[in-house]
Structures are given as C-alpha cells and as structure tokens.
Design a protein that fits this description.
alpha/beta; single chain; about 250 residues; binds magnesium ion; globular; binds adenosine-5'-triphosphate; 6-stranded mixed beta sheet; 4-stranded antiparallel beta sheet
Length: about 250
C-alpha cells in the first residue's frame, strides 16, 4: 500500500487538453477578387473577380484562349504589373504595399521564372546562365557557379556547365532554364508555356521535373499552358476567362 501511495504522489498533474496545432492559414500566394483592364485610349476588361490560393508544394495549371490574359496574370503574381481591382498577397503581404525595390527583391529571392522561349543568354555558358539569379542577388561568383552546377545536375544535365547555349536541343534548353529558375531555391515558380517549344518527349521530361520539384521540394508552381498533357499533371487546372478562373478537371 505504502509503495502504491508513493507512486501516485509522483504522478504528473494532467495538463489541460489543448487543440492540435492548426495548419498554416497563410497561403504562399493569394489572389483576392483580382481584376485587370488593358489599353489606355479604349480600355477593356481582361478579367475580373479572380480568387486563387497557391500553397507550397502545389502545381496549378492555367489554360485559356490566346490573348485572354494568362501572361498578364502571371505578371500580376510576380508583382511586375498591378491589378486594377483586388489584391495579390505574397507570403501574407499585399504586393501593392511594396515599393519597386522591394518587389524586385521579392522576385529575385522568392520567385523563379520559366518562359516558352527559354531566354538563355547565348554569350554565357550554361553554368553562367544558371548562376545569373544568384549573381544578381549578390552571391560571390565561385559559390554561385558551384550552386549552378548542382542545379544543372538536378535537372539531369550533370557536368554540362561549360557548354555553350548554341549546342543545346530545345528540351535541354528548357531544362537549363528550369535549373536557372530553381537555382536560388525559390518558393514559387511561374512558368509561361514552358513546354510550348518542345517536342512531346522533351515536354514530358520538363513536366516531370516540374512535378518532382513541387511535390518533393515543396516549391509552388503556377504554369500557363496550351497543352492538355501539361494541365493533366497539375494538382488543379483552371480556365481563364473574362469572369475569372473556372476550375476544370485536371485529367
Ligand atoms: N500593357 C498592355 N497594354 C495594352 N494591352 C495589353 C498590355 N498587356 C497585355 N495587353 C493585351 O492584353 C491581352 C492579353 O495579353 P496576354 O499576353 O496576357 O495574353 P495571353 O493569354 O498570355 O495570350 P497568349 O496565349 O497568346 O500568350 C492581349 O490582347 C494584349 O495585347
Ligand atoms: Mg501569354
């Protein structure tokens, strides 16, 4: 008896039952009722009432007719353009509240871009091309070039850093562009028709890489595409129209 009493005396006081920690409430990127008009003399509405939440690790596809405003929408997400209505909120911060220098810094540090036309600089080697975002952000040359080599290896081009842009195939060019977009480990990749200039096999390789980077490395990606194959690898796909984004089956 004595023994049992001694044990019960040392039992910890039960703590009050606390709720489980809530998942993060802040999206990486959030568009709230975003609208955009273009043209000065005869302005016209491109789109309105766009609501979109982009979380870390998710890959979203946006499809739509040519000229409907897909590239404009990506520019809004990057703070390269301002909405006429609504808010673009990155990491909990309304981009409208940032000055040019702050917006440029956010793009340099947290966003990677991939374009249909690759936009590689022909007079630089692959390594120098990929290292560019790091150099622009002030990284010392040696560290930036070493990280560029890693990034090239991550997209399946190990040991190719010394090569010239001119010798690359289309698929390889886009993989170098992807390595450049990812080299500074951005939180968000904005891809504007990243497979538009590629044959189906190269396109599949680039899409698989994008998919892997988002799912396994927690990068978020918004991809504009005309390709149903590309839209099919996304977690969610949306059609852009005048009245906003409509979710379409991502199959
Ligand atoms: N700064 C601007 N001033 C005037 N018009 C503009 C401006 N930016 C875009 N536009 C117009 O807005 C429309 C949408 O352009 P945007 O490039 O976003 O389309 P898109 O959906 O990306 O087309 P595509 O599929 O052909 O690339 C186009 O008609 C374009 O001419
Ligand atoms: Mg476009």
């Amino acid at each position: 008896m004595r023994h049992r009493r001694a044990r019960s005396a040392t039992l910890p006081v039960p703590s009050p039952i606390l709720p489980a920690p809530a998942p993060p409430v802040t999206a990486l990127l959030e568009l709230v009722r975003v609208g955009k008009r273009v043209g000065h003399s005869r302005p016209r509405r491109l789109f309105t009432a766009i609501d979109l939440r982009v979380d870390a690790g998710s890959l979203l596809a946006i499809v739509g007719e040519s000229g409907c405003g897909k590239s404009t929408l990506l520019n809004l997400m990057a703070g390269l353009d301002r909405p006429d209505e609504g808010q673009v909120v990155f990491g909990g911060e309304d981009l409208a509240g940032l000055g040019e220098a702050q917006a440029a810094r956010l793009r340099r540090e947290r966003i990677g871009f991939v374009f249909q036309a690759f936009h590689l600089l022909p007079h630089l080697t692959l390594r120098q091309n990929v290292a560019l975002p790091l150099r622009l952000a002030g990284s010392p040359s040696r560290a930036a070039l070493a990280r560029a080599d890693e990034s090239l290896a991550e997209v399946g081009l190990p040991g190719r850093g010394d090569e010239a842009v001119a010798v690359l195939s289309g698929g390889e060019s886009q993989r170098v562009a992807l390595a450049r977009a990812l080299v500074h480990r951005p939180a968000l990749v904005l891809a504007d028709e990243p497979t538009g200039n590629l044959d189906p096999e190269s396109a599949a390789g680039v899409l698989a890489l994008l998919r892997e980077r988002t799912r396994e490395h927690g990068v978020a990606c918004v991809m504009v595409t005309h390709s149903t194959t590309a839209a099919a690898i996304a977690d969610r796909a949306f059609r852009l129209g005048h009245d906003g984004l409509t979710e379409v089956a991502a199959t």
